Amino acid sequence: MQTLLVSTAAVAIAEIGDKTQLLSLILAAKYRRPWPICIGIFVATLVNHAIAGSVGALVSAWLSPDALKWIVALSFFAVAAWTLIPDKADEDGAMRGAGRGVLIATVIAFFLAEMGDKTQVATVVLAAQYQPLWQVVAGTTIGMLLANVPVVWLGARFAEKLPLKAARIGAALLFAALGVWILLR
Questions:
Q1: pLDDT in tens, 79-109
Q2: Do 48 and 144 touch, CB atoms closer than 8 A?
Q3: Which of 10, 46, 53, 154 has the highest count of CB atoms within 10 angstroms of its CB?
């Protein structure tokens, strides 16, 4: 049980203010369909963290901490640039989106956003240190849900009041600052 609790706490804390939390808010504001978004977050996180946990020992042997630092920093800069590009989807289309379309969009977006993310790295490290693997994966998935599900429900509720252009610019600045911070620490 200790493995499950340590994994849950580590990821829930690491996820606060993370790019996937911002992604949760953006998906909630765009689609306003919290149930398929939450299910998509669950599926994407479970698959991503199962893969990360399974290869935890191998990845830690292959990548130096310095190489990992550069990869994470560059990914923050890439996400900052991507965030500035407005979505081409119209609001009416987003509002009418089918449940499965929102679910699939969330699974893909969340799975890709988790690639190289600090919670994925945390999962790799936790899986290398703790056993059994299923408790690590379950714990990191629960931690991710604890941090993101409230954001989805609040974002869907207040979506009409969110200035999306300002949110995009703010998120891009935040991601760029995180990239600089990673390089300088």
A1: 667 667 664 443 444 444 445 689 998 999 8
A2: no
A3: 53
